Amino acid sequence: MTQLPTSTEKKLGLVIDLDTCVGCHACVVSCKGWNTENYGAPLSDQNAYGADPTGTFLNRVHSFEVQPERGAAQTIHFPKSCLHCEDAPCVTVCPTGASYKRVEDGIVLVNETDCIGCGLCAWACPYGAREMDQKEGVMKKCTLCVDRIYNENLPEEDRQPACVRTCPAGARHFGDLGDETSDVSKLVAERGGIDLMPEQGTKPVNKYLPPRPKDEAAIDVLAPFLEPVAEEATGFLGWLDRTLEKL
Amino acid sequence: MHPAPSIIAFTVLSGLGFGLLGFLGLGKPDVSGFTAFVFFFIGFGLAISGLISSTFHLGNPQRALKAFSQWRTSWLSREGWLSVATLIVMGIYAIGIIFFHTRFAILGILGALLCLATVFATSMIYTQIKTVPRWNHWSTPVLFLLYSITGGALLSGQVWIAEPLFLLLGAAQLVFWMFGDNLFADSGSNMGTATGLGSLGKVRLFEGPHSGGNYLTREMVHVVGRKHAVKLRVISVFCLALLPWAIFTFFNFGHAWALLAVILHLIGAFVSRWLFFAQAEHTVGLYYGAR
Amino acid sequence: MNQPKLNLSPKVSDEVRKTTCYMCACRCGINVHMKDGKVAYIEGNRDHPVNQGVLCAKGSAGIMQHNAPSRLRAPLKRVGERGSGEFEEISWDEAYDIAAGWLKPIRETAPEKLAFFTGRDQSQSFTSMWAQAFGTPNYAAHGGFCSVNMAAAGIYTMGGAFWEFGQPDWDRTKMFMLFGVAEDHDSNPIKMGLGKLKKRGAKVVGVNPIRSGYNAVADEWVGINPGTDGLFILAMVHELFKAGKIDLNYLAMFTNAPVLVNGDEKSEDFGLLMRDKDNKLMVIDRATGKPAAFDKKGVKPDLAGSVRDAGWTHKTVFQHMAEKYLDPQYAPENVAEKTGIAAETIKRLAAELADVAFNQAIELDIEWTDFRGETHSKMTGRPVSFHSMRGISAHANGFQTCRALHLLQIILGSVEVPGGFRFKPPYPKPPEAHPKPHCGVKPGQPLDGPHLGFVHGPDDLALKEDGSPARIDKAFTWDNPMSAHGLMHMVISNAHAGDPYKIDTLFMYMANMSWNSSMNTRGVIDMLTDKDENGDYVIPRIIYSDAYSSEMVAYADLILPDTTYLERHDCISLLDRPICEAEAAADAIRWPVVEPDRDVKGFQSALCDLGAKLGLPGFVNEDGSQKYADYGDYITNHERRPGVGPLMGFRGNGDETGRGAPNPNQLDRYIENGGFAMAHIAEDHQFYKPWNAGYQDWAVKIGIYDAPQPYVFNLWSEPMRRFQLAAEGHGTRQPPDHLRERIKTKMDPLPIWYDANEAENKADEYPITALTQRPMAMYHSWGTQNAWLRQIHGRNPLYVSQKVWDANGFAEGDWARVTSPHGEITVPVALQAALNDNTVWTWNAIGKRKGAWALEEDAPEATKGFLLNHLIHELLPPKGDGLRWSNSDPITGQAAWFDLKVRVEKAPAPSDGESQPNLKPISSPVGTGPENLAWKVGK
Ligand SMILES: Nc1nc2c(c(=O)[nH]1)N[C@H]1C(S)=C(S)[C@@H](COP(=O)(O)OP(=O)(O)OC[C@H]3O[C@@H](n4cnc5c(=O)[nH]c(N)nc54)[C@H](O)[C@@H]3O)O[C@H]1N2
Ligand SMILES: Nc1nc2c(c(=O)[nH]1)N[C@H]1C(S)=C(S)[C@@H](COP(=O)(O)OP(=O)(O)OC[C@H]3O[C@@H](n4cnc5c(=O)[nH]c(N)nc54)[C@H](O)[C@@H]3O)O[C@H]1N2
Ligand code: SF4
Ligand code: SF4
Ligand code: SF4
Ligand code: SF4
Ligand code: SF4
Ligand SMILES: [Mo]
After folding, report:
1. C-alpha distances in angstroms, B189 versus A196, A199, C340?
2. B41 pLDDT above the threshold of 80
3. Does B215 touch chain A (CB under 8 A)?
4. What does the longest C-alpha to C-alpha distance in chain B come to?
5. What does each C-alpha distance from C31 to C55, C193, C302, C593 come to in angstroms?
6. A166 located within any domain
7. Is A27 among the domain residues?
8. Beta bridge partners of A185
9. Over 90: is that where the pLDDT of C918 sits?
10. Cα angle at B77 between B10 and A111, to 5 degrees?
11. What gap in Å lies between CA A142 and CA C490, rounded to an integer?
12. Left if phi > 0, otherwise alpha if psi is -120 to 50, otherwise beta: which for A192?
């Protein structure tokens, strides 16, 4: 249904830690692997071994540079998939009802058998979270691994998105952001998690944890640097003798 | 945005078609029989070929009927309903005129209103897209309607009304281009908000997510040809408005000139619609360093 | 709302088969999900010690590697000219006949005419055994061009190395410094470790000219000038000495710092460590003031001790260190300009290290007993830790720089302590416990011992009677005496030059030597195709084993096609590079989770066949029949020493670990256990391993050693001093005169820093350093054939600093000509602001030869992608002394990839729009891949 539910029972989503993401693309590829083999049509690739290889991915990692006012430029790796917005414009524009937001957990999905591939939802999404599969002609997007997170054929501990399970650095967290007591909500509170493009009014469920301050001294800058015990070797040996005496 | 020929054709042709049908609905020109048939043929032909070409854009056109289901929320769905309603109402109206030499005036007025509503709905498909600030503005429906009415006036031979409309359209288009240029910046979205990193400093893209392009970059991060924008704007306004206006004002000597005016107007409309897409910047571009 | 009803519990797969990844050398455990007998999805194995469930991009893309269109299909015999890529598919029997036809006569007359080099080999204990049985001295894997500096410096200094042989105590360390690492072999474990540090808010410092990947998440980035890390480290050492922030007790008890150095300038032993009559290292006991053996129970070795004898004073190593490192040449102010790091920053970082190591020390209430027999009630942790890789080792001063880093760790007392750095079994192991290199060749006979090893002085060099190199790569010669891993990068060029001698057959495995793993790629291609006056190839025969249609395939005469990693047996063995953790010994297998669908064979199995055909000892039974049916058979039944075989787990009746008779069901037991075996180290044996009596006994029990071998860290390196002594004129084996000075200055027994060939590489004319980094989502050249991964890295720009960008007025889409003393390339540029001013870099091994890897010829890898290797020569530019000096570390022979000095200038886009040089296409033995993919195995 292209109407958004007025509220959802849960707000399942991801919390992505920009302070920890090393930009390894593991989440990108595990997502591709899982979603090629599972939900809906496979994620196809065109010109796979040719001049312009291009395929459908539900999760991509960008790299940005930030130049602070003082100090060295910083590099930030930035994974991005569907943010499962509460006010998801991609859903309301859909003419067919293929796009919908699940009432029980807030996951935004495309029902591929209804999708006509008009592309409007991708236009409506501010974040570039939807990609039209060129072979199937249907809209693809992150499913939050809806076919994993409740899957009784998977061991309990594996009932989490493929990208979260694989992330080597532990930069991706999954949980209910509607529940203030959940680990993800606490993490967001602790680390000042943010929304992307809040001005778009989409109310994303996924949150990003900003990078911690960089290039700052860990010890009190006012604390003295190392106090010399000696300036040259002979003085040093005197100190050494005294110190060894005490050991 | 990618200026897809199918969508350009859809919006330009259906706009013109519904414009013409609108005038016909109002009984301008007040024709009947074969002449009416020709006029209606052109009007329906444009509107329908526009609608058909829009399906070329679809990944699964065979399911196009499903697009009617979401009229409560989706402008595309509404546009579908309205265009069908318009075609039916105008169809009945046309049958009356062509075959029965009877003009159901009320039906005609209703049809004309539906024509306007359809064009409005089409425009709203773009206007509602908040991610493209250039479109997400009241000027979009105004322009779409102006295009449609002006084109309708031109095709229906309502020179008296077309002449001022040309000037109005040309001027409006110019003005909206100019302040449209600032809309993205004014929207408040930038690489800083897109990444949430703006508070740390100036953000730039270091490496895109993949070394090649993808659906998003092809569809929404279209930058090719933007550098010719000024030239194209001039060409467009000349063809669209100034030249047809000049033709009617100075050389209005019959069908050949009228045909030339129509062709010029069409070219202008196509160029301007190309620019409508090609110049439209989508917020996704911010993730690809395209602003 | 009527939303669709979803099946939330779809079937995931028919079966999960657990094996080991080989999309890189990290060797993570994988769960291969099978549907209809086909590979459907690959994920990490949660129980596996290496990756604990996570998987990197490459690992997850394994399915695309396994199904790559570039896979070879059958043995190939060259029919066109070498380098054309024209082949005919032949049977394995014919392939073996050809190979045996070439190799048999060599073995009977001159075994050294076979050079067998095995590249990215994970079965070196097996391939080296084959080479040893054949009798050639010419065997090595890729270590010499990879990171031998890191490995050798670690082993010579502390009996173990970083690399994958040790790890920070990720759970306890509070400050972590990473030097020159983009990815490393310990790929997932490092990421997991960084994740742990981030979670705890521990400080991460990245020392690297480039700020990407790990250095991007580092809390502090030190954008050092390339090649100057040694200076930076020794400046911190200087500061720590000056402030007395040194773990004196640790140095006294566990290192050779208190050992007396012979100060008798006249002596043959001048500068060597003094020993007592039992040949034990001699210290002064602080309790008695008298000389004593270092390992005597109750001894209190005196760091400040000395003895006077016959007019000479013998001082401790520690006093030599103090003298050396307190010297103002290492003062932060004096190194700031050279390193590009502000003196304040150096001082502050030294202070932070000291603060964390000493003020934030941790103590574990765990009792342990040291090798002297003394029991300690606590384990004191110095929670600073370090890791480092090729950024410091791939320079010509890399060995000493790596040593300097170990010195820093050791003076902080942070090796093998809680919160510090710890070894993984089979390390720690004293350098003396490693074999020495062997080169005794007898026609028709095996070699007299293992090829590679650790030299301890001139006597151990691999020289012939006449003093000329015994090995084709000139490893273990005066040019690079401590070349523990051989010099694979010199093989082709030496074989081509016939220097030190000509060879007949070059046999290689898993090394893309005509492309990204060679320096001077174009030159190597010419050497491989060069003919002599008779029209014969200068390198007469080349046999190569690859699994894919790589660039190297075109340059071989006979190709032995390997399987993919999902189709063969492999063992990741304690005999070579196992998958241990600091807290457990572990090894693993690969097994055929799918059968090959074509006429290919695991290379090791092919060696079993070929070895038998050649009648090599160890590969045939008494009756001459084939001993090992295949590699799986070898893994199960081979015994290196009685009871010790390739795999430690499930030996004997199945419940013996480490030692035990071969178990015919061993492989099945591994498969049941998830593809690996693990033996945990008891809590009180997990630290201080080189000195921990309990650990030593455990290591003996599981077969790592045959007897306990505690040792002290070698801050003072005696082997190096022995080479210096020779250069000073002592002893019978003497270096050639042109090398004397170099050996004297560079082989200092204490870590030093010197310029890495800046003058030779004309740094004044070529002021910019050009580097490469490994992309995390690509493994060298392999990744390119992978339809998913090549979308991520399908081309590589040259990243330049803001300074270089501005100086050249570059704009997006511009090209640059990059010139080194050796060559020139023209390539696309891009800006990176977070980059050392005087550095440019690119992703390694993205550029491809047209025609390789089953890609279309217009693939971006081949049109826009490029290699820096064209600019790097295996020899330094001529110095005018008539000699060509090798572009390697003078101590180990490690290829100095990162000493590349260049000039960068804006250039017009090449007329063909392609990166230059643009070599002509090779023809593909496998055609090209399909246009579109829509992969789904299950229905
Ligand atoms: N400029 C520059 N050059 C460098 C480096 C650098 O930093 N900068 N790094 C150097 C270093 S450290 C290294 S280790 C080398 C690595 O360079 P290489 O050792 O050449 O590594 P790969 O490119 O991975 O290629 C090895 C070959 O193994 C083949 N192969 C893959 N899987 C299998 C298999 O299962 N069986 C068989 N038989 N073959 C297989 C591949 O097809 C490929 O041809 O590159 C070196 N080159
Ligand atoms: N994904 C992936 N993983 C791999 C490989 C791969 O190809 N892909 N290859 C494997 C192999 S064979 C190897 S040898 C390892 C190598 O693993 P790494 O050692 O991480 O290898 P490189 O990518 O060459 O990274 C060298 C780093 O050193 C930095 N550097 C260069 N010069 C200096 C210097 O003078 N000082 C300092 N401080 N830094 C410097 C470079 O900027 C770069 O970040 O990775 C292994 N792991
Ligand atoms: S897997 Fe984790 S660390 Fe790697 S790119 Fe994705 S989020 Fe970042
Ligand atoms: S991120 Fe985009 S696709 Fe996902 S819910 Fe929000 S608007 Fe829709
Ligand atoms: S592409 Fe499919 S899901 Fe998206 S708006 Fe169109 S019909 Fe709806
Ligand atoms: S939650 Fe699943 S679908 Fe979404 S990005 Fe992660 S792996 Fe892909
Ligand atoms: S690091 Fe990646 S490629 Fe390497 S073994 Fe592990 S999962 Fe495989
Ligand atoms: Mo390597």
Report:
1. 10, 7, 38
2. yes
3. yes
4. 73
5. 10, 22, 55, 10
6. yes
7. yes
8. none
9. yes
10. 110
11. 50
12. left
Angle, in degrees to the nearest 10, between helices C332-339 and C229-243: 160
Residue type, A112: E
Predicted local confidence at residue B271, as pLDDT: 96
Contact assessment for residue B14 and residue B45, using Cβ atoms and an 8 Å cutoff: no
Decide: C181 in ligand 2 pocket, CB within 6 A: yes
Residue-wise pLDDT tens digits, A7-47: 999 999 999 999 999 999 999 999 999 999 999 999 999 99
Query: Are C113 and C433 within 8 A, CB to CB?
Result: no
* Token duo for residue A121: 């939802």
Structural domain of A174: 12-209
Q: Is residue A240 part of a domain?
A: no
Residues 6+ apart with CB under 8 A from B288: A62, A128, B205, B208, B216, B217, B221
CATH of C166-423, one of 3.60.21.10, 1.10.486.10, 3.40.228.10, 3.40.50.1370: 3.40.228.10
Ligand nearest to the CA of A140: 5
The candidate with the shortest Cα–Cα distance to C222, out of C98, C344, C51, is C344
CA distance B127 to C637: 74
Look at residues C280, C287, C285, C282 and name the one whose alpha carbon lies nearest to residue C301. C285
HSE, side-chain direction, 13 A CA sphere, residue C839: 24
How many angstroms separate the CA of residue A81 from the nearest CA in chain C?
A: 16
- C-alpha span between A139 and A41 (Å, rounded): 10
Contact yes or no for C549/C853 (Cβ under 8 A): yes
Q: What is the token pair recorded at C397?
A: 């001063």
Task: Name, in order, each residue with C-beta under 8 angstroms of C773's C-beta and a sequence gap of 6 or more.
Answer: C182, C183, C210, C212, C213, C841, C842, C843, C844
Q: Distance between CA C56 and CA C23 in Å, rounded?
A: 9
Instruction: Give the CATH number of the domain where residue A82 resides.
Output: 3.30.70.20
C252, C301 in Cβ contact below 8 A?
yes
Query: What is the Cα–Cα distance from C472 to C513, expressed in whole angstroms?
Result: 16
Task: List the single residue in C44, C244, C787 with the smallest CB-CB distance to A48.
Answer: C787
Structure tokens at C353: 């290290």
**What is the maximal distance between C-alpha atoms in chain A?**
86
Count of alpha carbons within 13 angstroms of residue C749, beta-carbon side: 27
Query: Is residue C818 pLDDT above 60, yes or no?
Result: yes
Q: What is the pLDDT of residues B176-225, one digit of tens each?
A: 999 999 999 999 999 999 999 999 999 999 999 999 999 999 999 977 66
CATH code at C768-907: 2.40.40.20
Residues with CB under 6 A from ligand 7: C 21, 23-24, 26-28, 51, 55-56, 58-59, 187-188
Mean pLDDT calculated for residue range C635-657: 96
Q: How far does residue C629's CA lie from ligand 2's centre (Å)?
A: 39
Are the beta carbons of C791 and B206 separated by less than 8 Å?
no
Tell which atom from ligand 5 comes closest to the C-alpha of B66. Answer: 7
Q: Specify whether the CB–CB gap between C136 and C440 falls below 8 A.
A: no
pLDDT tens for each residue of C528-585 = 999 999 999 999 999 999 999 999 999 999 999 999 999 999 999 999 999 999 999 9
Residue owning tokens 């281009």: B177
Query: What are the residue ranges spanned by the domains of chain C?
Result: 17-63+567-597+620-685, 166-423, 768-907
How many structural domains compose chain A? 1
Task: Indicate whether A173 belongs to any domain.
Answer: yes
For residues C124-139, average pLDDT? 98
Domain range C17-63+567-597+620-685, CATH architecture: Single Sheet (2.20)
> Which of C217, C286, C333, C926 should one mutate to test binding to chain A, selecting the residue with the greatest count of A CBs within 10 A?
C217
How far, CA to CA in Å, does C92 sit from each of C97, C561, C628? 8, 10, 17
